[in-house]
Design goal:
It is a single chain. It contains 27 helices and nine strands. With 692 residues, the chain is α/β, with parallel strands linked by helices. The protein is globular and about 75 Å long. The protein starts with 48 loop residues before the first helix and ends in a 19-residue tail after the last helix.
């Protein structure tokens, strides 16, 4: 499904943390759910609410050497990881060399990754056939053909293809094409002076991998490869531009694409993508496509071959011998993310087999996994039916709260309101796991062929997606596996909560209701609001890209959104770098969703009391507990390098501002914590942003 909101995928996601319990089987934080020991009462709530709610914990907690962040979501994911480990190790202990059943296949895949002795003995021989194909590709058309296999093999491409819902015809699928081709996280890494250190490390890494695969002229060509990618970056759209769902929807016939971008062999590319019969595509960054093709057409074939050989090796490196895996870690995790040590091998094996976040994760963890198969086993063992019932009750309260807000908005006209209510009523809430498991009966997995397992799993995934192109849209589809600790709002007007997030502490049936409404309730509200954020509002009640807003309502919305964007652009996440600031335009959709989510969570909590007064627990009122639930859900700290990467490429604001940026716009927070003029977060009533 197409998601609206972030670069190269239009994603509706929320990378949330959660209140953390050391032992999932014990009550968290006493009787009602807030970690009172984490609160720093030396900080005024009105000066830094994130610091007030979490300051003591932040002072006492360090980032582990094998991570780029320590958050309550990380702790929660660690528990999911241990559960998946148990599934995979048990499966691996009882599997044949080439098993035929699902359990045996995930076990054999895991066993193949854990066989370090065999992997070490192979060096880079598992990718020799791909490298030979690059050597043999002496023309740009031949190279375009190899790029067309980027979804099903270790090749990379200048253009990324995906099958997703057609935003102008939601009953059918479309083939989307996006800009691609960069090895660094974002175009800014190539173009901004602040990333000179990372660029230098990247060029050294390109040279290192080319030398390891014995590619000729490695040092000279490494510089040419980075120069080539720098030109691609200069032609590419920014992450903020890529969020615009209307600007990135440019349908055209393939013959029109060939006229727009004549410098690329589209027939070879589409043939390799198994899409030779597709006559219509949707181009995202329309103005960038010809520029990228011109760079491709004017770059020596020798450089293009080195570029593709490097990316084959980079994509495969986590599955190769230690020299390659260590080099991959040094660049991707240490230099770019600030992580000091590699994760243990079994943890990396879980990423390879079970997958990572298929929406927000990187290529390692979203390419060539058996994530849906592991998810089927995970949900069967760890998702309790009573959790689903309680979540569905919370969702009903949140939907009712949103309806009440829409019905009384003072800036929305009756005609637009009627369309908004109609859209709200079409949402489907998906909980736990997909209704229909993904089949793996034709996938061959061997416990002695790790690279082959990854390639075959990737090919099977792409075959599944391309095969459904001509069929009706599957409205039961999921884009996240059950073991993913995340959630999203999709263009199917579906809000998806995988099993892994529906557990203590993000959702704790034993916690005080105010805490659940402030954490998972606000998250549900966040996802609902995404359907009406600056991009989601452009889709109507059937999921079609259509302007259904009265002009005066759109103007009123845009003015409020602009004020929120301006607020966030004043936030500086690193004291060590005063020039680094949040990009209010890039993060606008998520900031709107955060503000809407907490607002709805509070409304729903109050409604759940049915007129009764909220109890006061340990001196905290019900409203205070809702706000503390949200603030402690976002507890965490990241390395400086991870924050810098987030700022340029991630549509989510840093954690501190997902708390402080929201509460300072909510009148109820001022009342709950006696926030007054002179406090650092104080915003005058007339300047507070209220949207939904």
């Amino acid at each position: 499904m197409r998601r609206i909101g972030v670069t190269l995928g239009w994603v509706f996601i929320v990378l949330f943390g959660a209140a953390f319990a050391e032992d999932a089987d014990k009550p968290m934080y006493g009787a009602w759910g807030v970690d009172l020991a984490a609160i720093d009462r030396g900080i005024r709530p009105g000066d830094d609410f994130f610091g007030y709610a979490n300051g003591t914990w932040l002072d006492q907690t360090s980032i582990p050497a094998d991570k780029r962040a320590v958050t309550l979501r990380v702790y929660m994911s660690d528990r999911v990881e241990e559960r998946v480990k148990d599934i995979l190790e048990t499966s691996a202990a009882h599997t044949a060399d080439k098993p035929s059943d699902l359990t045996g296949k995930v076990g054999a895949f895991y066993k193949a990754f854990m066989d370090e002795t065999r992997i070490e003995s192979l060096g880079f021989t598992p990718i020799e056939s791909q490298l030979a194909a690059v050597h043999a590709a002496q023309s740009r058309a031949a190279l375009a053909g190899l790029m067309g296999r980027s979804n099903s093999d270790f090749y990379s491409s200048l253009y990324a293809a995906s099958i997703d819902v057609d935003l102008k015809d939601p009953a059918h699928y479309a083939l989307y094409l996006n800009q691609a081709g960069l090895g660094l996280p974002d175009r800014d890494y190539y173009l901004q002076a602040d990333f000179a250190k990372q660029r230098a490390a990247y060029q050294a890494y390109v040279m290192q991998l080319l030398r390891l695969i014995q590619w000729p002229k490695a040092e000279e060509l490494a510089g040419s490869v980075v120069a080539f990618e720098t030109k691609i970056a200069d032609s590419s759209w920014s992450a903020a531009q890529d969020r615009d769902v209307a600007a990135t929807y440019n349908p055209m016939k393939v013959v029109e694409l060939q006229k727009l971008v004549p410098g690329f062999a589209w027939k070879s590319y589409l043939l390799s993508e198994r899409a030779p019969d597709i006559e219509r595509v949707v181009v995202a960054e329309k103005t960038a496509f010809p520029k990228i093709a011109d760079t491709f057409a004017n770059t020596p074939v020798e450089t293009l071959q080195a570029w593709l050989a490097f990316h084959v090796t980079d994509n495969a490196a986590p599955y190769l011998s230690k020299t390659f895996a260590d080099a991959w870690f040094e660049l991707h995790e240490k230099v770019l993310g600030g992580q000091q040590q590699p994760r243990l091998r079994w943890k990396r094996a879980i990423t390879a087999v079970s997958g990572d976040d298929f929406i927000a994760g990187g290529r390692f963890g979203s390419f060539g996994t058996m994530g849906w198969g592991v998810g089927q086993l995970y949900a069967g063992k760890y998702f309790p039916p009573d959790a689903k019932a309680k979540i569905q009750e919370l969702i009903r309260h949140l939907l009712a709260a949103y309806r009440a807000r829409l019905e009384k908005l003072d800036w929305m006209s009756p005609a637009t309101r009627a369309e908004a209510l109609k859209k709200l009523d079409t949402y489907t809430i998906k909980v736990g796991y997909p209704d229909h498991p993904r089949g793996y009966s034709t996938l061959t997995i061997s416990d002695i062929d790790l690279v082959g397992d990854v390639q075959r799993a990737a090919a099977a995934d792409w075959a599944f997606l391309i095969a459904r192109y001509h069929g009706a849209v599957d409205r039961t589809d999921w884009a996240m596996t059950p073991q993913t600790n995340d959630a999203y709002n999709g263009s199917l007007r579906d809000i998806v909560f995988p099993a892994a997030i529906l557990q203590p502490p993000i959702f704790d049936p034993s916690a005080d209701p105010a805490i659940n409404y402030g954490s998972v309730g606000a998250i549900i509200g966040h996802e609902l609001t995404h359907g009406f954020d600056d991009q989601g509002r452009k889709l109507d009640a059937v999921g079609a890209l259509r302007d259904w807003w009265a002009p005066q309502d759109a103007t009123a919305f845009d003015a409020r959104a602009a004020r929120l964007s301006a607020q966030y652009s004043t936030f500086h996440p690193l004291a060590s770098d005063p020039n680094l600031h949040v990009n209010g335009e890039l993060t606008l959709g998520e900031n709107i969703a955060d503000l809407g989510g907490v607002t709805l969570g509070l409304d729903a909590y109050r409604a759940s009391l049915h007129g009764a007064s909220a109890p006061v627990l340990d001196g905290t009122t019900g409203d205070q507990r809702v706000f503390l639930g949200w603030a402690q859900a976002w507890r965490g700290k990241l390395t400086d390098d991870a924050i810098k990467q987030q700022i340029v490429s991630d549509p989510h604001s840093p954690r501190r501002f997902r708390v402080n940026g929201v509460v300072r716009n909510m009148d109820a927070w001022y009342e709950a914590f006696d926030v007054r003029p002179g406090d650092k977060l104080y915003v005058a009533p007339e300047d507070r942003v209220h949207i939904w």
